[in-house]
């Protein structure tokens, strides 16, 4: 059992410490942004606040990847915090604003997929909030507790799983095609952004452990 845990941990570290993983996460995320804007405008799902959010994503994703590539830890910390809050604000506006403005029966009448989609959106908001709080607790503490660090990493993986579920459900929702594409590309972008955040979180964690050990 111990060998399996160590093996899983090593695979996790190799994947998220890899510069190629960060490059794919940042590159795909940035390439998707114009597509999100296109379908958002066609479907009426994006407003000036949504456009500002996309611009902030572009800036912060580029900054975070640059800091990962050059190993500028202070810039990495700042970009990670900014991106976490950017994603949290966008999700809260969507889950508590746009979805809340519609009757929940709109989703429930779609059947199981509509109910699951609505529930997972709220769950994504909760997990993102937890990750933000956890990030500050971990990096503000003088000594890291292994269980707290592991919980934060598991939360990010769980969030990635929830985003995959939404990507599978969105195409079968009974909305107009352009709005479905808008939702799908938005969640796909979030998926790759959190892959990038996972890379940064792991590197910051390793650096802080080395600092404490030293």
Task: Describe the fold and architecture.
There is one protein chain. The chain has 214 residues and is an all-alpha fold. It contains 8 helices and no strands. It has helices at residues 2-17, 19-43, 48-70, 73-98, 105-108, 112-140, 146-169, 177-213. The longest helix is centred in the last third of the chain and has 37 residues, at 177-213. The relative contact order is 0.15.
Short description, anyone?
With 214 residues, the chain is mainly α. It contains eight helices and no strands. The protein is globular and about 50 Å long.
Keywords:
single chain; 214 residues; mainly alpha; 8 helices; globular
Give the overall shape. Answer: globular
Q: Into which percentage range does the β-strand content fall?
A: under 5%
Category from helices, strands and their pairing: mainly alpha
Tell me about the largest β-sheet.
none
The string of secondary-structure elements, in order, is: HHHHHHHH
Q: Give Rg in angstroms.
A: 18 Å
* Total count of strands: 0
End-to-end C-alpha gap: 31 Å
How would you summarize the topology of this molecule?
Layout: H1 2-17, H2 19-43, H3 48-70, H4 73-98, H5 105-108, H6 112-140, H7 146-169, H8 177-213
